[in-house]
Design a protein that fits this description.
Elements (H helix, E strand, L loop, with lengths): L6 E6 L8 H10 L3 E6 L9 H8 L18 H7 L2 E7 L1 H9 L5 H8 L4 E5 L3 H5 L1 H12 L3 E2 L3 E4 L5 E5 L3 H17 L4 E6 L4 E2 L5 E2 L6 H12 L3 E6 L11 E5 L3 H12 L4 E4 L6 E3 L20 E3 L3 H6 L7 E8 L3 H11 L4 E6 L11 E2 L2 E4 L4 E3 L3 E2 H15 L8
Parallel strand pairs: 1-2, 1-3, 3-4, 4-5, 8-11, 8-13, 11-12, 13-16, 16-17
Antiparallel strand pairs: 6-7, 9-10, 14-15, 17-19, 18-21, 19-20
Helix pairs in contact: 1-2, 1-8, 3-5, 4-7, 9-13
Bound molecules: ligand PMT.
Length: about 400
C-alpha cells in the first residue's frame, strides 16, 4: 500500500547502522510519506543532518531548544503530529532510556509524548544485543505496546557474526506499509465471531462439551481488530483473553445462549464468522439436583436433543452486503463434507480443517485449512500458526467480497 500522506517521525540514535537510514528516508519520501527526523547527539557522529534534511525535505531536529534564539522543538507537537514513530537504529542506550523513561534528549521526550504506534529497530553488536539488560529492555518496550522490528543475524560492523544487524531499509519500509494496510482495510466494519466450545449441562455438576480452546476464533478477532474493524466475540468458556480495544467479548455457555447473543448482533454485522465448536446435542432434561450414582446400574443413558444450528439460523437471515463464513471440522471425507456444509448452510465461504492433519485443529497453536468459496475457488494453507491462518482467512474475505461500511 502507498504511504502517501502518512506522517512518519523517524528517530535515529547512535549506532553505525545509522548509515542505512538515508536510504530508508528516500524510500519513504519517494512513496509520498512526510518524514521528520530527530537525531540523538551521538547519531550525528554516524550520519550527517544535512544528508537527512536534504532527503526528508524537512529540518532535522536534535535539541529541545535553540540556546541562541530560544526557539524550541515541542516534543508534544511532534508526538501528536506523527501517524507512526519509528526509532531506527535503536542503540542499547536508547532502548534503556525508552524502557526507563530517561528523557534527557529530544528523541526520548518525543517518544514519551507520542500518541501514535511506535516501532523500534535495535542495532548493535552481538554481545550488547544478547546482554540480559538489553533483552529485558526490549521485552519491556514490547509490553508497553511498542512494535519490535527484530535485528537480523549476519556480519556486524565489529567483524563479529550474529544477531544485531539493523533490518534492511526496504524490509522496514514493507513493515510500515503493511501496518498501514492492516489499519485501514477494515475500518468502519463490524465483525461478529463465535469462538470456543459450548457446554451443555446435564446437572449442576456435569456437562457435555468438546476440546475447543477458542484460539482460532480469538486469532480471527485479533486480526480483524488490528485491521480496524469493531469485533464482537460470542465466546464459549475458554481460558484465553482478547486484548485489543476494538474487541468486545460476550461470554456464553450453551449453544442456545450463543445463538441468542449472536442473533441479537447479527443484523448489524458486516461479516459473521462461526469458528465455535458448538455442541450438536444437549441433554433433553436438565436435572437441577446432582444425579446420584446408581451402583446397581452398569449402563446409564442420557437422552439428547438436537441443538439449534447457529450458523444455519443466522445465514438464513443474511441481508445483501453481509458475508457469512463457516468452519468445518472434519475427520474423514473432509472436502466433500465441507462442500455439503457450504451449500446446505448457504455460506459465502467455508474454512475446512481436519483432525487428520497432525498438529491442526483443537487446542493447538497451529492449524492447516482449506478455504472454499461459493464459486468453487479453493485455497489450501500449509500448517501455520493460528494467527497466520487468521490473517490469510481475513485477507481472503477482504479480497473476495465487496465489504462496505454501512448501517445494516
Ligand atoms: O478453538 P480451537 O481449539 O482453536 O480449535 C479450532 C476449531 C477446530 C474449533 C475451529 O477451527 C473449527 O473448526 N470450528 C468449527 C468446529 C465445528 O463445530 O465444526 P462443524 O463442522 O461441526 O460445524 C460446521 C459449522 O457450523 C461451524 O462453523 C460451526 O461453528 C457451526 N455450527 C455447528 C453446529 C451448531 N449447532 N451451530 C453452529 O453454528
Amino acid at each position: 500500500m502507498s504511504l502517501a500522506g502518512k506522517k512518519i517521525l523517524l528517530g535515529i540514535s547512535g549506532s553505525i547502522a545509522a548509515y542505512k537510514i538515508p536510504l530508508l528516508v528516500r524510500l519513504l519520501v519517494k512513496d509520498g510519506a512526510e518524514v521528520k527526523v530527530i537525531m540523538t547527539p551521538t547519531a550525528r557522529d554516524f550520519v550527517t543532518p544535512l544528508t537527512l534534511s536534504t532527503l526528508s525535505k524537512n529540518p532535522v531536529l536534535s535539541v529541545p531548544f535553540d540556546p541562541d534564539d530560544g526557539s524550541w522543538n515541542s516534543h508534544v507537537e511532534l508526538g501528536n503530529w506523527a501517524d507512526v514513530m519509528l526509532i531506527a537504529p535503536a542503540s542499547a542506550t536508547t532502548l534503556a532510556k525508552m524502557a526507563s523513561g530517561i528523557s534527557d534528549n529530544l528523541l526520548i521526550t518525543t517518544y514519551l509524548a507520542a500518541k501514535c504506534p511506535v516501532f523500534f529497530a535495535p542495532a548493535m553488536d552481538l554481545d550488547m544485543y544478547l546482554h540480559p539488560s538489553t533483552q529485558a529492555n526490549i521485552a519491556r518496550l514490547i509490553s508497553y505496546g511498542n512494535f519490535l522490528i527484530a535485528p537480523k543475524e549476519g556480519e556486524l560492523a565489529s567483524g563479529l557474526c550474529g544477531a544485531g544487524r539493523l533490518e534492511e531499509p526496504d524490509e522496514i519500509f514493507k513493515i510500515l506499509s503493511s501496518y498501514f494496510e492492516k489499519q485501514l482495510s477494515l475500518k468502519g466494519l463490524s465483525f461478529l465471531i463465535t469462538a470456543g466450545p459450548t457446554i451443555e449441562a446435564i446437572d449442576p455438576v456435569r456437562y457435555i462439551s468438546n476440546h475447543s480452546s477458542g484460539k482460532m476464533g480469538y486469532a480471527l478477532a485479533l486480526e480483524a481488530a488490528e485491521r480496524g474493524a469493531r469485533v464482537t466475540v460470542v465466546s464459549g468458556p475458554v481460558s484465553i483473553k482478547a486484548d485489543h480495544p476494538n474487541i468486545t467479548v460476550i461470554d456464553v455457555k450453551s449453544a442456545q445462549d450463543m445463538l441468542d447473543a449472536a442473533d441479537e448482533l447479527f443484523s448489524t454485522c458486516n461479516v459473521f464468522i462461526a469458528a465455535a465448536a458448538v455442541a450438536d446435542y444437549r441433554p433433553s432434561v436438565f436435572s437441577d439436583k446432582k444425579i446420584k450414582k446408581n451402583y446397581g446400574n452398569k449402563q446409564v443413558a442420557i437422552e439428547l436433543t438436537t441443538n439449534p444450528d447457529i450458523l444455519a439460523t443466522l445465514s438464513a437471515k443474511k441481508q445483501q452486503g453481509q458475508v457469512v463464513v463457516g468452519f468445518a471440522l472434519e475427520t474423514n471425507n473432509a472436502l466433500e463434507n465441507a462442500k455439503i456444509k457450504l451449500e446446505s448452510k448457504k455460506l459465502d465461504m467455508i474454512v475446512m480443517n481436519t483432525l487428520e492433519d497432525q498438529g491442526a485443529g483443537f487446542q493447538s497453536d497451529l492449524n492447516k485449512v482449506t478455504m472454499i468459496l461459493r464459486d468453487g475457488e479453493q485455497k489450501e494453507t500449509p500448517l501455520l500458526s493460528k494467527s497466520m491462518i487468521a490473517s490469510m482467512i481475513i485477507q481472503t474475505i477482504v479480497r473476495s467480497f465487496p465489504l462496505q461500511s454501512q448501517n445494516l
